[in-house]
Design a protein that fits this description.
mainly alpha, about 80% helix
């Protein structure tokens, strides 16, 4: 090898390493939130679920009750720890799950480009709503419970339900893709 010449990195190996790194980060962040911060916040709130986990949303009364139950220490921990973890989690699952769904849709018979476009179009809005939800929750956590206005709570709640709605749609498409991929493979074996 001539002096000063560096070997070219294998693009496939780089891509694989990227997927492994992003997926590992996603799993570690998910575990930290669901095994540590969410249970701790629930405990501090006397059993009430954090905003992020309220699939059907919440109203001002629910928000005030949670903020009061958390107290200033719990609100600070939610803001300082949970939302920072979730802000890191959203882009990692956005990328990792988009790539996984693209693979599923590709195996289901969609062309490579269409599979990638559809996967990213389905998963990235979930991540976007999650990040937007975190911003609204952060604003609620910074305010005294009695100072919450209905519009802020409605905005945060909409973003929470939109996040979960997009996640459910993506999960449903993934299950359909798995079914179609298996059906396609069975037909190939029968031929």
């Amino acid at each position: 090898m001539p002096a000063g010449h560096r070997p070219r990195m294998n693009l496939a190996l780089f891509g694989f390493g990227f997927v492994v790194a992003v997926t590992t980060a996603m799993i570690v962040l998910f575990a930290a939130m669901h095994l540590v911060t969410f249970p701790r916040l629930r405990e501090m709130a006397g059993g009430l679920s954090p905003f992020d986990l309220r699939f059907l949303g919440y109203d001002r009364g629910d928000a005030v009750a949670l903020l009061r139950a958390l107290g200033s220490e719990g609100r600070a921990e939610y803001l300082r720890v949970q939302l920072r973890l979730d802000d890191a989690f959203a882009p990692t699952y956005g990328v990792a799950l988009s790539l996984a769904l693209a693979e599923i849709l590709g195996r289901a018979g969609l062309g490579r480009r269409l599979a990638f476009l559809l996967a990213f179009a389905l998963v990235l809005p979930t991540a976007g709503f999650d990040i937007a939800e975190n911003a609204a929750i952060a604003e609620m956590l910074r305010r005294p419970p009695d100072a919450l206005d209905v519009q802020l709570v409605a905005t945060a709640s909409f973003r929470t339900t939109a996040k979960w709605g997009c996640a459910a749609l993506g999960g449903g498409i993934a299950l359909l893709g798995i079914f179609l991929a298996n059906h396609r493979r069975d037909r190939e074996f029968d031929a």
